[in-house]
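Re: the 336-residue chain
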Amino acid sequence: MIKNVLLVDDDHEMLLALKAGFTKYRDSFAVQLAANGLKAVESLKKNVVSLVVTDLKMPRMDGFELLAHIMEYYPDIPVIIITGYSTPEMEHLARKGGAVGYIAKPFLIENLARQIMTTLRKESEGGTLHNVSSGMFLQLVGMEQKTCTIRLEDKFTSKKGILFFHEGELLDARVNDLQGEDAAYEVFSWNQVNLSIQNGCALKEKRIHLEMQYLILEAARRKDEGISEEAPPSVLEEVEPFESDPRTVIKSIQDKIENDLGPACGLEDIYQDDSWDSLIFQISGTGEFLNIGKLMLGYIDKGETSDYIVLPGEKTTVISVNPKCPRDKLLQVLSD
């Protein structure tokens, strides 16, 4: 993923010189410009920034104020200070305030670029993955109780987001000006992402208090509803309306099975049970992760007197059958 570096300086010519000098590094990072600290704050709200390089002496909001703001609201974003009035005391204050680098003017662009590249490499020190299912991978992060910062980019929209984990627990999420649960819903709605893993998490405060499993399921529900609302009328007319009455759904399935297979079908019961939703979601997520598609139906042998066929939907439909039923024929009937 190309990373964004925000350059902040009230000297317009300085900004343009840095931007031009960094063109040779465009395969590694992109440059954004801000004329002062307040403009930088606006940019941080709208964009996913990996690193800030800021001058100290600026009007309206100087470099120290900007550094304090970033440490409070964006502690994961490293800051490199540049200044034309360098003293040992000033460098000490900058580093004490949270800056990861300090460079005095005049300087060689190559030296600053080297600091930037070294700092950016830490973003992916834990590895990178491409074209993965965000929901499935992040559940694995929770299971492994990792402490890390994960930066993601949606393959289809190029939107970028950040998730913060401490010992497998999701602390916070950020996507542009969204933060917390709303940002998590956005990230978890992305089907395929590229992501980088940074070991460690600068964030300490927990801003998300819902379980990640719930967030992922809710994101999927919101996405499905959004697709239905945005689909053009011509498409909606072609789609058979979803029958939400469970009695009608169950009767339809029962009639189909008995008409095609007769009384020897082994059917025992049909009912809807949302306690299966979590398992269905995980199985379906595994299918997407392995690029074999979503779960259409599944036959489950739990070692009990009855076996189960599960059908995903608004609520999971469960078909209880005799283990001696003609399983292959029954699955074929249900999949037609």
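The radius of gyration is 27 Å.
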